[in-house]
Model the fold of this input.
Amino acid sequence: MLFTRRSFCRATLGLPLLARYSAAASQAAPLKVTTVETVYWNSRQDAPFWPHWVWVKIMTDAGVFGIGETYPQNSADPAAVHRIAASLIGKDPRDIERIWADLYRSFDFYVAGGAEMRALSAVDLALWDLLGKSLNAPVYRLLGGKANPRVRLYNTCFPYKYDFNQEPEKIMQELIDTRGITAIKIWPFDGAAKASANQYIIPRALEDALVPVKRLRDRFGFDIEIAIEFHA
Done:
C-alpha cells in the first residue's frame, strides 16, 4: 500500500484526532499584523542591560504581540529589522514558514550573513513568540516538546564590571554570590591570535592567555566550570 503524508497521518493519529485539529484550525480567529516597534541603543553604555540587543515587537489587531531579538553590529541592524518586520503589516503572523521563505528570497540570495539575516532571525523569533501567545501554549511545545528539561547555565563575560583577562575571579565570585552560577565563559586567546593576524599563537602568548584560566582554577579549584570561546 502506498502511503501519502495525509494517509499516513490518518492511519497513525486516527480520524478523531485529525478532525479536532482541523476544527481548531478552521475556527481560529483572523489575525493581522498592525504595527511594529524596534528598540536599539547607539551606545551599549546607554542600554539598561548588557548585551544591548536589537529588539523588535510585532503587534496584531487582536492585541497579541511577539518579541524577537538579534545581536547588534551597527545602526543598519535596527533599520533592517524594522523594514523587514514592517513589510508584514496586514499579513497573518502565524504563516511563519511562508513569511520566512518569502523574506529569505527577497534578499536576492545575499544571505551568508549581515544585517538582513540577523533581522530575519529577530522577526522569526517574534513570530514564534506571537504564535505561542495566540494559542496560549509554550513555544517549545510547538517545536516538538521537551528534549532537555534542564539546561546548564553559564555566564558570558561581556565587559561589564571587570576585565576577565585581569580579574576573572571577581566575576566568578559575584556570579556565585548573586546568581548561583558556577560556570564561566571567557575568550583569552583573541589578543594572542590578533598579534599574528590570526595565523598562529606563539608559546609565550599561549602562556599569557592561560593566566585567567589559572587564576580561576587557583581560586575555585574544580568547584566551577570554565568554557573557552575561540571565535572561529
The radius of gyration is 23 Å. The mean pLDDT is 85.
